[in-house]
From TrEMBL:
<dbReference type="InterPro" id="IPR011050">
    <property type="entry name" value="Pectin_lyase_fold/virulence"/>
</dbReference>
<dbReference type="GO" id="GO:0016829">
    <property type="term" value="F:lyase activity"/>
</dbReference>
<dbReference type="InterPro" id="IPR012334">
    <property type="entry name" value="Pectin_lyas_fold"/>
</dbReference>
<keyword id="KW-0964">Secreted</keyword>
<keyword id="KW-0732">Signal</keyword>
<dbReference type="GO" id="GO:0005576">
    <property type="term" value="C:extracellular region"/>
</dbReference>
<protein>
    <submittedName>
        <fullName>Pectin lyase fold/virulence factor</fullName>
    </submittedName>
</protein>
<keyword id="KW-0456">Lyase</keyword>
Length: 149
């Protein structure tokens, strides 16, 4: 996953049906000038950061499920992150033409990043469809991840 996300040239990466689990304290790095849209993915059993990166990486996370993740992202991330919730879901309408689906959590730290300053960077790009975080939790672990392309 980190290899997929790290890029100094990546404009947008829609990642859906992704299963990130049992990593060694590090998850995907939104580095370079990455513009990232994580949709209906599941992060599970991660003893460190699930998401990190440099100061120019930007990411929207919606309809994702975080299960037993110690720290989803640093409390004050260097990069710009937006984690969809019931409270801020409508903020996505300007960028995606629809509200975002809230993320779900079980046994995980908080992920309350709500930076929308980069939403204009999605203008003119194809936006992946999404479903609920519970739909992702029910489908992704059995059908996605290593060996299930």
């Amino acid at each position: 996953m980190a290899e997929l996300v790290y890029s100094s040239l990546l404009r947008v990466q829609n990642v859906s049906c992704n299963y990130v689990y049992h990593t060694t304290r590090r998850g995907p790095a939104l580095s370079g000038t990455t513009l990232f849209h994580a949709v209906n993915s599941v992060w599970s059993t991660i003893p460190g950061h699930a998401i990190e990166g440099g100061d120019q990486g930007r990411g929207v996370f919606e309809g994702c499920f975080f299960e037993d993740v110690v720290e989803i992202a640093p409390a004050e991330p260097e990069n710009q992150l937006f984690s969809a919730s019931d409270v801020n879901a409508a903020s996505c309408e300007s960028a995606f033409g629809r509200a975002c689906y809230a993320n779900g959590y079980s046994g995980s730290g908080a992920f309350d990043s709500s930076d929308t300053g980069f939403f204009g960077d999605f203008a003119g790009l194809t936006i992946a469809p999404a479903a609920t975080a519970m739909d992702a939790l029910g489908y992704v672990p059995a059908n996605c991840g290593i060996g299930r392309l």
